């Protein structure tokens, strides 16, 4: 065995031995609560329907953004994704204390693309005020849409005019935002 082969073999043994998953004598069942331990606050455990992809939708619990995974078709348009988010949490999600800050804060007229940026048209609502629930509402939209691999940022418009919306620090921005913008509002995993 060459020195290089010995190094590769030792590295592979180290990786396999140190994978961090302890052996158990028997399988442990998942909790009946519908969550998977260690994956964050709320994650749906239902099996994926054939041809579906996991999509995090962000809702609110105790002033924090919480991801909930739902299964959607891989070609689901951004408009349909946004309508699903606007419909709010399901009854089981609401029973898990999830709510939506979107109710009554913004009317989404539509969503279209400009490259990898989702442009969310807010219609004729009053201007952004920077209230906490309004910040959470924008965070829900941004985090949900940018969870898709084909969306790198979200900008808000009214018609064709850029719209300034609140960031977590209360400042207003018309620039496209990513989930990282709202990272301080995410519930701890």
TrEMBL record:
Matches recorded under Pfam families: Germane
Signal sequence region: 1-23
Keyword annotations of the record: Signal
Domain GerMN: 78-167
Taxonomic superkingdom: Bacteria
Name of the featured protein: GerMN domain-containing protein
């Amino acid at each position: 065995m060459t020195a290089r082969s010995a190094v590769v073999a030792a590295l592979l043994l180290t990786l396999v031995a140190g994978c961090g998953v302890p052996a158990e004598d028997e399988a442990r069942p998942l909790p009946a609560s519908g969550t998977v331990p260690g994956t964050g606050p709320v994650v749906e455990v239902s099996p994926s329907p054939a041809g579906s992809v996991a999509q995090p939708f962000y809702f609110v619990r105790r002033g924090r953004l919480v991801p909930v995974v739902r299964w959607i078709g891989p070609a689901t348009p951004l408009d349909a994704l946004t309508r699903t988010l606007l419909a709010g949490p399901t009854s089981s999600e609401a029973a898990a204390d999830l709510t939506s800050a979107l109710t009554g804060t913004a009317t989404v007229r539509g969503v279209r693309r400009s490259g990898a940026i989702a442009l969310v048209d807010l219609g004729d609502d009053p201007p952004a005020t920077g209230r906490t629930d309004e910040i959470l509402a924008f965070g829900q939209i941004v985090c949900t849409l940018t969870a898709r691999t084909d969306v790198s940022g979200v900008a808000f418009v009214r018609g064709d005019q850029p719209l300034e919306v609140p960031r977590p620090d209360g400042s207003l921005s018309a620039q496209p935002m990513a989930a990282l913008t709202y990272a301080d509002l995410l519930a701890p995993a």
